[in-house]
Structure to design on (81 residues):
C-alpha cells in the first residue's frame, strides 16, 4: 500500500508548529487531520484545514488531498479568538 506524507502547519499558533505524518494514501483525510491535531494537543473537533491560499478541503482520501497539495494549513479558532 502506497504511503503519502502530509505536512500539517498550525498557522493559528504564533510559532507555526508543523506535524508531518506518513499515512496510507487510501486513508480518509479527516482521520489524518485528527491524528495531526492530537499530536499538537489540539481539539480535533474544532480545527479546520485548508490548502495554502485558503481553499477549503472538502474531504476525501489522503491521496486526493495530496494530489492538490501535501502542505495543509490548520486553523484553531480557539487560538485565533
Amino acid at each position: 500500500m502506497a504511503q503519502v506524507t502530509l505536512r500539517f502547519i498550525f498557522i493559528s499558533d504564533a510559532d507555526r508548529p508543523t506535524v508531518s505524518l506518513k499515512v496510507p494514501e487510501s486513508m480518509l483525510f479527516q482521520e489524518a487531520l485528527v491524528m495531526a491535531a492530537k499530536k499538537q494537543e489540539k481539539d480535533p473537533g474544532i480545527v479546520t484545514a485548508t490548502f495554502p491560499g485558503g481553499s477549503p478541503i472538502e474531504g476525501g482520501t489522503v491521496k486526493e488531498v495530496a494530489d492538490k497539495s501535501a502542505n495543509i494549513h490548520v486553523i484553531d479558532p480557539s487560538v485565533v479568538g
